[in-house]
Design goal:
By secondary structure, the chain is of the alpha+beta class. The chain is 30% helix and 37% strand. The protein is elongated and about 90 Å long. Keywords: Signal.
Length: 447
């Protein structure tokens, strides 16, 4: 009798423990999915209740605006002054023969916040000159270095009529997105729990089954949360793009950076055609700062206004102050004929290195329904090199099947030395040139 009571007591205790564990498991699952859904609803509630002040308010969350701006801003990517909110991007300048490869080190924050600042590190190399020099048996104009820049983003601002329908339509569409995501979250969690419950001890030999399930559950819900929070941001961004339910979106950013050359430029220079040829070196160190204002309007289109200043170590060759001349060298025999030995090229004149301050401005316009725009850049140099240069460009952006910018081209007309600063050199006879730039953003966005 006593043994039977003891057996029944032990059995009752086991059943109670099993029921307790099941309840705890169900509670963890319910709390976890509920927390994810509540977090999405909290973000949505913040957008709904954000006040409209003087026609300015919120139509999508901050991280959704990050995605929106990443695609809009990356529609123009022509040079070092331009911003990409992708993790990686490449700039190619055919006129200068330069390739820039850049990586953005921004790490996303967990809260719903706009991108505030980040650091970009890149490599800059002159490839075209090296290739042409090798073919022509001329001296290399070596340029290889690294760029480091810090960018500070302003707070994006969205403008719409306080009493209009834009806010109401966006709130309703966002509510539908929230409810759809909540259903999908619960479905995903239910399928996961069913699979997890089917896991057997003999399938994870040498491990504690409860610990394995706990780790798998923790990893699953962390991934589920990150995935659906990003889906919520991405769908909001797509909604704003597709509906154009806003009057104006503005932003601004400021960048401060430095270019550090790794190897020097080498130039062969003689005072005149009969003088001895000497080697001269230059490290084109550069310090630059830029500030850009951005406007996006469904009716008027997209505007970029950039102001830039920099100072760099210039030289008489690159500033166009010297003549270039071929050095034919000595003559010798190849066994049959007398041949001329080509020893490369040189420059004629007084060589010097000097610091050149530069002030520049650029305006870019892309119509709202077009992938083709127009740009104008003007640049004034100071100090020993005072040339006034400008660029007229036609930017073209190609998009992928999702409507996201995939590659940017800009055909350019380069107008050099517009103020006729340089005299008695080869440059006054070659002031106009045609250029092409290519910008390629890739990898994930800065989210």
């Amino acid at each position: 009798m006593g043994a039977g009571l003891k057996y029944r007591s032990c059995l009752k205790a086991v059943i109670i423990c099993c029921l307790f564990l099941c309840c705890v498991t169900a509670e963890v699952k319910a709390q976890t999915t509920a927390q994810i859904i509540d977090e999405i609803k909290a973000i949505n509630s913040k957008v709904i209740n954000w006040p409209n002040s003087n026609g300015q308010g919120m139509l999508i969350s901050n991280k959704a605006m990050n995605i929106f701006l990443s695609n809009k801003v990356s529609s123009y990517l022509s040079g070092n002054e331009d911003l990409s909110l992708y993790k990686n991007y490449v700039n190619i300048n055919a006129a200068e023969g330069m390739i820039n490869i850049n990586h953005n080190f921004h790490q996303p924050v967990d809260s719903d916040d706009w991108v505030r600042s980040f650091v970009i590190v890149g490599a800059r190399v002159n490839i075209a000159n090296a290739y042409s020099a090798k073919i022509a048996n001329r001296y290399y104009d070596n340029q290889l270095g690294f760029t480091i820049q810090k960018t500070w983003m302003g707070k994006p601002r969205t403008y719409y009529a306080a009493n209009g329908n834009f806010k109401k339509e966006m709130d309703a569409a966002r509510a539908l997105i929230v409810n759809t995501l909540a259903q999908n979250i619960n479905k995903k969690a239910e399928e996961f729990e069913q699979s997890l419950n089917g896991l057997k001890q003999d399938e994870v030999p040498g491990q504690n089954l409860a610990d394995v399930k706990s780790k798998l559950r923790k990893a699953f819900y962390a991934t589920l949360r990150a995935d659906y929070l990003q889906q919520f941001s991405g769908q909001q961004s797509e909604l704003l793009v597709n509906t154009a339910n806003f009057n104006l979106v503005t932003d601004n950013w400021t960048s401060l950076g430095v270019y550090i050359p790794v190897i020097p430029q080498k130039f062969m220079v003689s005072d005149d055609v009969n003088a001895q040829v000497n080697k001269h070196y230059n490290y084109p160190f550069e310090l630059f700062v830029t500030h850009t204002r951005f406007w996006e309007s469904p009716k008027l289109g997209r505007f970029f206004l950039t102001f830039a200043g920099k100072g760099f170590v210039n030289n008489a060759v690159q500033s166009g102050s010297l003549f270039s001349a071929d050095v034919t060298g000595a003559q010798g025999l190849d066994g049959t004929n007398t041949v001329t030995i080509n020893k490369g090229d040189r420059y004629i004149g007084q060589y010097k290195n000097f610091i050149t301050p530069v002030a520049a401005g650029k305006l870019v316009y892309i119509p709202s329904t077009s992938h083709v725009g127009i740009s104008f850049r003007i640049e004034k140099n100071w100090g020993s090199y005072k040339a006034l240069n400008s660029i007229i460009g036609i930017p073209i952006v190609l998009i992928d099947k999702k409507g996201v910018p995939a590659i940017n081209f800009e055909a350019q007309l380069l107008l050099q030395d517009m103020n006729n600063f340089l005299k008695d050199t080869h440059l006054p006879y070659n002031k106009t040139a045609v250029g092409l730039t290519v910008g390629i953003p890739f990898s994930k966005i800065v989210y």
